[in-house]
Amino acid sequence: MKLLESIEQAFRNMTDPSPYDLRQAIQQLELKEEEVSSYVAEPSYLPYGRKVLFQSEVVEVILIHLPAGRETMIHDHGASRGCAYVVEGELTNKIYELGAEGYVDESGESVVKQGQFLYAPEGMIHQMCNTGTRRVVSLHAYTPAMSNTKVYHTYEQVLDYVI
Ligand SMILES: [Fe+2]
Q: What is the whole-number distance in angstroms between the Cα of residue 84 and the centre of ligand 1?
């Protein structure tokens, strides 16, 4: 079965999945680098490539391509929660906490290796970084489909704009 068909079959009947259900569904896909690579999008207006592989009101499945040396904006996922699976490469996930006046402070980071999962609980503010020398490709499943996501800045980033 083709990848997109397998993904649709795994996610289309979900009604109110937990992040753990999403993880199970991703795990059952038994994703391989070769199989996923034809869907990898090159970055255009964002620092990373993004391709939606499945979307319903309940679930959104996205393939992210973070080239070596790149990082995402610091962001949340609105009211959605989900999980991600690293298909290729090694991801550094930085977690932030919302502080005074809407700025965020880094509160921790973890490395997510190829074949490992990353949970994104509701309200999590994070940034994904690729500090390695090869690309990172990861598959993300969120429920419900994302809306009202926000981007955040650290105080140091804001200082960069002000002279
Ligand atoms: Fe995210």
A: 9
Classified as helix, coil or strand, 14 is: coil
List, for residues 49-106, the tens digit of each pLDDT value. Answer: 999 999 999 999 999 999 999 999 999 999 999 999 999 999 999 999 999 888 999 9
Ligand 1: distance of its center to the CA of 126 in Å?
Answer: 6
Cα–ligand 1 centroid distance for 163 (angstroms):
31
Length of the chain: 163
Hey, what domains does the chain have and what are their CATH numbers?
Answer: 3-162 (2.60.120.10)
Confidence (pTM): 0.93
In our burial notation (b when 16+ CB lie closer than 10 A, e otherwise), range 139-157 reads bbbbbbbbeeeeebbbeee
34 C-alpha vs ligand 1 centroid, how far in Å? Answer: 24
Q: How far is the CA of 75 from the centre of ligand 1 (A)?
A: 6
Give the H or E element holding residue 9: helix 3-11
